[in-house]
Structure formats: structure tokens, C-alpha cells
Amino acid sequence: MAIVESAGSLVSTYRQWVQGPAVQSITLYNGRVQDYAELYKAQPNLRIVIRFLARNIAQLGLKAYRRVSDNERIGLEPGHDLARFLKNPTPALPRPTTRHVWIRNMIEDLALYDSLFELKLRNDANGELNAVRIPPTLITPIGDSLLWPEGFKVTGILGERTYPNDAVFYMHGHNPSDPRIGVSPVESLRQILAEEAAAGEYREQFWRTGARMSGIIERPVEAPKWSDTARNRFLSDWRGTYTGSGTGAGGTPILEDGMQWKEASFSAKDSEYLGARRLTREECAAAYFIPPVFVGILEHANFANIKEQHVSLYADTLGPWLDWLTLELEAQVLPEFDDVDDVYLEFNIEEKLRGRFEEQASAIQTATGAPWLSRNEARALRNLPPIDGGNELVVPLNVLVGGQASPTDSAPSGTASATLTGHGAKALAKAALPANLTGWQAKHVEVLTGFVNRQAASVLSRLGAGQDLDEAFDRARWDGELRTDLFALNLAMTEDLGTPLAAEFGAEFDITRTEAWLGENARIAAEGINGATYDELAEAWSGVARRGTASKAIAEALTELGIALDDDGVDDFLGGDSFLDPARNVFAVTVAARIPTIATTRATTVGQWARREAASQAGVRTKTWRSSGAQDSRHAGLNGETVPLGQPFSNGGQYPGDPVLGVAQTAGCQCSLDFS
């Protein structure tokens, strides 16, 4: 293996390729060569994708922050040179460039050429930094370094000028053969862009020279021989009359000598013209990792997946671009300023990810745990005058520190996960379970909430994609998953409660003897919980189905009247919220109201069964019912009742939560057993 000694410098390593410009081109089917700039002008799909990328990144605010500590940062003071530069990167130009245009131009150069070049110039009058874009077609890296440019040569109308490396802000992507410049994504689109250009040229030729009725003319064999003069006369008359913008274009031609017209045209469907145009746009979008829905390809778009793809766009598509750009600016531009220790740059992506006003208001209210606008602040939003006493926050009686989490706590809405905190915490706070069961009740809430959130995400996504409820709600899958979750909880809780109780009476607890009952218990519970959820969804979704039928009928009636509405238009015409809201509310209520009750019931049922089983294995003779008192008056009369271990209590149950007692007696039961 050869070793290169560079005396501490890699800059002088000899260049092993031919010097060339940073700009390349592609050859079209007609032999014409177009560079990337010409392709950008001529190819609408390429331009749409690149402009989408650049406009959305440029819209984000680029801010500078100073890190004060690990947990504190402050925005850079407005008078700082860096803050002024980010607001106006070229103050010395006759027409200064705004931040938006500056960032948009950078992203478009990077997206088209995979290279970016800007001169870093100082204003002699005031020393302010100016970043002046140099089109990649006019700049070439120079020098003999194997790894990076030693300088740059700029070619303009007045000649050439050379700049040192540190006078140019430059970025580029990966190039397998030349580390100094990037490789444009257009290179991977060569063939499809050439095909699109050829198809466009053909269409232009067709409409310019073809008859509006495309076909061929057959002349009978027995017709008299044409002279050259007669043939040329006919061709000249045909082309001048029925092609292009001729006086008879689109009309009915009159043929002679027994000639016949043979249709030879292809429809847009037969020639897959629209499909080819869509394919070009899809391939261009894929080259830049942009979801097709954002460049106008809406075949598989719906309300649910567009909303999720919007979040994915800024996390997965634009995120790497933002990270790349900020790191390069910090490395190459920040050192040009004084007093930039602990300063960093960040795009304000949060601004784009904020939800609708209703979603923001709900999230803020939940986060603060109280109302966040006074009456006068609310009136000002509606351009109304203030009122006396309107500057104080009105706190409802149900919102107290340590009580409910938000004013909306008593009326669940929104997503399942959003309602867990208030309802789940409140239900657990009110529970009066024995101390050894309280933790298991909370564990059930955690496991069941996670399960329902997974279920909600899947079912809502499928419903949003147009699937029927029976198809969207996969009973076999959800019964299997929940049974697995509950069986694991059953085993853990039984061992945790049974082992110390058996040891208290001098015995060793055998968990394997409980597995059959615990497994069957988990199966029955899983099917019951999912069955109830499905029934509630079916009831809620039936209204959506009826509304869909009504929407279709209304759309058809409006069409007959000459009023055309798409699906969104019909929904707006009928009014109402998102069509997924009824199903979404079912899952919200499940987490908010059903899960705490289910958790309490299962902690009591499985927990007391486990303790009774441990007592049986230890040879205990009697058991005593302990009622939860005022928390549950249903079993107050059983408090202190003692019976032999194998016999039922007077209510017919072997233990609190015994399924034989029925739902009315077991739901939310918090009673317990003592043994002797």
C-alpha cells in the first residue's frame, strides 16, 4: 500500500484527473445538448420539484441563538453583525437580497447542480459582509489538490478573475470521481428527461404540421398515374388547408380520384400520454425524496395521509437539507463575525409543523392546565372593546392545582393519547385499591393505553384510506396482540402477589400451575375489550356511512343542476368536522373513561385470584372479604364475612372480581381478601 507524506499538509497532493468545469449537460434524442440551466427552464416537472424544495426551505425563518447553558438559549441581539447579515445578506448591492431569496437561490443551486458558490465580500465603507451568489456555470475550482479546491476562477463578460479558497462559501454533495464538486441529481434523470423532451418535441411537431384529423390517405391502384406537378399541387393544397392553422384545419376534407381516409391517430389514453407525464414528475420527485402528493400527484391522497405526510416532509425530506445548510453556514460564515462563541443557527421548522388554531389552543390549554386567555384578550381578537374586570383569567371550578389537568377534562375530545393524562390520572387518584394492587392498576393503564393508541393509529389510517370498518378493524390481529399483553401482565402480577403470600404461610408458590387459567382469562378479556370497541366504532361509523351515501346523492343532484363538487366540496357543503372524528372520539373515550375502569377491575380480579391461589397452595383454611367501604357501597354488607377457602361468599363469588358475579358486581370493584 502506498503512503503519501505531505509534511503536515494534504493540499499539495497531486490532482489525478483532468481539470473541468462544475457544470455538465445531457444530450437529447434529437442530438441537441442542454446544460442543467436549460433543462430547468424547459422541463416543467424538474422545475416544479426544485422550486417546491427551495420555496419551502426559504419560508422557514433562519435564526441565530446564543447558548447560555445546557438548558437556556437566547436569540442573538438584533444589533449584532450576524443578525443583520441573516436579515440582509447583501446590503452593499443596489438592490439588497432578502433572506428568503438568498436561501431560495442556495437551495435551487444545490438541487440543480449539487454545488453552491457565493463570494464573501467585505464592504470597504463599513466592513459589512456580503454574500454574492455566483452561478455555477461561471465558476470553476482550480488548483492541484486531490481533496479540495485551492481557489476558484470566475469567468464573466469582462474576463476571468481568481479568488482564494477562503473567499468563497461553497457547498457540494458527494462525487465518486471528484471530491471538489458534486454530482447533480439531474444525472440520474438523464433518460427520463430526454424521453420527456422527445415526447414534447413530437407533440409540438404534430400540432404544427399534422392534420387535425390524424391519419393517412389511400389512393386507389386503378387511379390514373400522378404527375409530379399534380402530386406536389395536392400536397401543397392539403398542408396549407388542413394542417397547422390552415383555413380548413379541423374541417372535412374533400378528396379526389377515389381517395380514402384511414384513421391513424392515437388517443391520449392509447399513447399513455398522461401516464408518461405523471411518471416524469414522480421520478423527479423521487430523485429529491419528495412525497408525490406535494407536487400535485393526488391519486392516492386523502385527508389522513396528507396530514401525516406533511409532518414527514419536514422531518424526513427537508430535515437533512436544513441540517446540511446550517452546519456549512456555521463552519464557513460564522467565523467571519466577532463575538460568535456559543452561537449556532437553526431553522424555525416548528412554525411549519404547528397545527390548526383549534389544535394549538387545545394543546396550549392542556400544557398549562388552565385557561390561557383573559376575556379582554379574547375580545381584542374579535375587535371588541375591553370590559371592566376582563383582564383576569376565569378559572373554572373543575380546574384546580392537583385536580383535573385542563378545563376540557370533563368532556373528552381529540386523540386518545391527548386525553389520557387528565382522565387516567384522575381515575387512579380516586382509586382505593389495596396498596399491593395500586401499582398493577397503573401498569394496566399504561399497557392498555399503548395498545389502544396503536390500534387507533392503524384503524384510523385504514378508514381514512377508504377501507370498510370490518376490513380496517382486524379482530384477529387485535385479539392476539391484546391477549399477549394481558397474559404477560397476568403472569407478572400473579407471581408478584402470590410468592410473598405463600411464603408468609411457609410455602413456595408454583407459578406454572396458574398459566392455564391466566391464559384463558387474558383471551376472554381481550375479546371482550376489542368487541366493545368494535361495537362502539360500528355505531359511530354507521352515521359516517349514511353521511357518505347522502353526500353522494347530493353530489349527483347538484351535478344534474350543473353544479360540480368534488368530495371536499360536498363535505364543505354539508358542513361538519373531519369524517374521521366519530371514530377518533371512540378511541378517545376508550382511553379516557373505559381504560381506568378496566384497569381497576382487572387488578382486582386477577390480583385477588392470584392471592387466593397462593393461599390454596399454602394450605390456608379461611378467607375474609374486605370491602372498600364508601368507595364501593355494592359490597359493604360483605365486609368482614369469613368462609372456608374453597367455599363462595354469600354473594356467590369466590373472591372480589370473580367473573361469576357478572359485570354489575365486578366492574371497578376495589375489595380485597384476608387469609387465616
Oligomer: single chain
**Count of helices?**
19
Categorize the overall geometry: extended
User: Based on helices, strands and strand pairing, what is the structural class?
Assistant: mainly alpha
pLDDT averaged over residues: 74
For the sheet with most strands, the description reads: 3 strands, antiparallel
Fraction of residues in β-strands: 5-15%
Distance between the termini: 82 Å
Please state how the strands of the largest beta sheet are arranged side by side: 4-3-13
Helix content: 40-55%
Q: Cα-atom Rg, whole angstroms?
A: 37 Å
Q: Count the E strands.
A: 16
Q: Which stretches are low in confidence, meaning pLDDT under 50 for 5 or more residues running?
A: 1-23, 267-272, 397-431, 546-555, 561-577
Can you walk through the features of this model?
With 676 residues, the chain is mainly α. Among the domains are: 45 residues, no CATH class; 192 residues, no CATH class; 56 residues, no CATH class. The protein is 48% helix and 11% strand. A 3-stranded antiparallel beta sheet has the order 4-3-13. Strand 7 and strand 8 form a beta hairpin. The radius of gyration is 37 Å and the shape is extended. The relative contact order is 0.07.
